[in-house]
Amino acid sequence: STMDAVAAGLPFVTVPIAFDQSAVAARIEHARMGRVVKRAGPDLVQRLAFGLSDAARDQRMRAARQQMRSEVIAASGVNGLVAAVNDALTGPFRSLAAPARRYESFPEAAE
Question: Are 69 and 30 in contact (CB under 8 A)?
């Protein structure tokens, strides 16, 4: 998942196909954590290789991934991640999201 890769500090190369993947890919690129590659075209393998190489070597992207990794690791469980999402929605990423709604905790799933 995306959060697993963030927690590991891995470079992203996203190839959005459907549903919310384009929005997630745009946020990843905006946060300087990776690159977006369009899936259409005969040179997909070359574009993937270039995107991965660029994402892995770019120092600004490496620093952004390390910063986000530290924040995810420092978050305490689901409620800590909810707080981080709330901060992101009211901070630099607010223009990418719908009007923010603050959650005090993550609602438990009904059994």
Answer: no
